[in-house]
Amino acid sequence: MCISCCSNWQKICDICINSKQKRMVSVKTLGQFIIEKQADFPFSKGELSRLLRDIGIASKIVNREVNKAGIADILGGAGEINIQGENVQKLDVFANEQFIAALSAGGECCAIASEENEDIIHIKNEMSRNARYVVAIDPLDGSSNIDVNVSIGTIFSIYRRKSQNGPGTNEDFYQRGTEQVAAGYVIYGSSCMLVYTTGKGVNGFTLDPSIGEFCLSHPNLQTPKMAKTYSINEGNYMRFPDGVKKYIKYCQEEDSSTDRPYSSRYIGSGVADIHRNLITGGIYMYPTTSKSPKGKLRLLYEANPLAFIIEQAGGKATDGFNRIMELDMKELHQRTPLFIGSADMVDMAGEYMKKHSAVEKIAKA
Ligand code: AHM
Ligand code: MG
């Protein structure tokens, strides 16, 4: 009997073989897509493509561990010895190690800046020392959601190095977001998705666990110019600048002509909130607070890559006043406020900031 449709006595019937073949033809894997795109640049040597491939490999390994997180009690919680006698690592430490290992083995980047490491990591092998790229990464974003089975993510950003040869330097990372060559994120959610841009639009790939491949599922993503969702940690309301307080009130007001009030959606994982808003439209804000006067998010491996993706999808990203990708990088782990999402909503929030918070900004400068 056919093991697929049960309607035929052959091992796999012709009907199933045909439909399987049709499905296979329509699937484009991340690897195929990257190779196709590389053909658009006849003089490229494929280094960037291989970097993206390395990131894809590491994220599949991280996804496998994230999927096991719910049975941590059976397998052993972080810091414990599991039943195989292995040390159980915290997921963010594990993710960091996986990305560093994959990028080191790939040999296409000379240094990595990670949220988990105070200083940049020099990749020592001979092949990497002279590689042309550096990678900035937040290996597991959404730390408060790691242990509770809620979506988390990885964010990455790729720059061409500034230094000539040898080990990478801090200066290689002190570039504006506009200099990014590629950026992306992986969301470990109800399914695992990798979304990236090389400055020619944004494409999303969903991991098909049955074949272990990221498959093109969201080609040429565009975010709506205007939407009805705002995402912010309103628990901090009393600590927000006046411009943000007033913009939140605007979002909550009743007004049929602008279809308000808007909906509030906040997961607390930047990747998950921004991914949702990328697809359905909306604004995500993490402004300064009186407790964190520089903001919370990091410019290099959170705000810049997310800004690159959102801009490529037709949206905007600012610090409330200035375009994120034009901010100067002065410190490796520099923080920034972030207003990101649908262009009209980010513009409107910016107007509120200028009107009500410009004075606070000058006072803090
Ligand atoms: P993390 O890198 O330590 O996870 O922090 C970044 C995260 C964002 O993903 C998220 O939107 C925000 O911090 C949540 O912060 P809060 O708990 O203050 O709302
Ligand atoms: Mg983070």
Describe the protein in words:
- The protein has 2 domains: 28-218, Fructose-1,6-Bisphosphatase, subunit A, domain 1 (Fructose-1,6-Bisphosphatase, Chain A, domain 1, 2-Layer Sandwich); 229-364, D-Maltodextrin-Binding Protein, domain 2 (3-Layer(aba) Sandwich), CATH 3.40.190.
- α2 packs antiparallel against α3 (47-68), α3 runs antiparallel to α5 and α7 (242-252) packs antiparallel against α10.
- The mean pLDDT is 89.
- It has helices at residues 14-26, 30-38, 47-68, 72-75, 91-106, 126-129, 242-252, 270-280, 299-312, 343-364, and strands spanning 109-114, 121-122, 133-141, 152-160, 182-188, 192-197, 202-208, 213-218, 229-231, 263-264, 283-286, 297-298, 316-318, 335-336, 338-341.
- The chain has 10 helices and 15 strands.
- 42% of the residues are buried.
- A hairpin with a 3-residue loop joins β5 and β6.
- An 8-stranded mixed sheet has the order 2-1-3-4-5-6-7-8, sandwiched between helices.
- The chain is of the alpha+beta class.
- It is globular.
- The chain binds 2,5-anhydro-1,6-di-O-phosphono-D-mannitol (AHM) and magnesium ion.
- Residues 115, 138, 141-144, 233, 268-270, 273, 296-297 line the site of 2,5-anhydro-1,6-di-O-phosphono-D-mannitol (AHM).
- Mean of residue pLDDT values: 89
Radius of gyration, taken over Cα atoms and rounded to an integer in Å? 22 Å
- The helix/strand class is alpha+beta
Order of helices and strands: HHHHHEEHEEEEEEEHEHEEHEEEH
Main β-sheet, spatial strand arrangement: 2-1-3-4-5-6-7-8
Multimerization status = single chain
What general outline do the C-alpha atoms trace? globular
Measured distance between first and last alpha carbons: 75 Å
Q: Give the CATH H-level superfamily of the largest domain.
A: Fructose-1,6-Bisphosphatase, subunit A, domain 1
**Mind describing the biggest β-sheet?**
8 strands, mixed
> How many domains, in number, for the residues?
2
Bound molecules: 2,5-anhydro-1,6-di-O-phosphono-D-mannitol, magnesium ion
Instruction: Provide the CATH top-level class of the largest domain.
Output: Alpha Beta
Helix content: 25-40%
Unreliable segments (pLDDT under 50, ≥5 consecutive)? Answer: none
How large is the count of helical segments? Answer: 10
Proportion of beta-strand residues = 15-25%
**Can you count the beta strands?**
15
CATH-derived topology of the largest domain: Fructose-1,6-Bisphosphatase, Chain A, domain 1
- CATH architecture classification of the largest domain: 2-Layer Sandwich
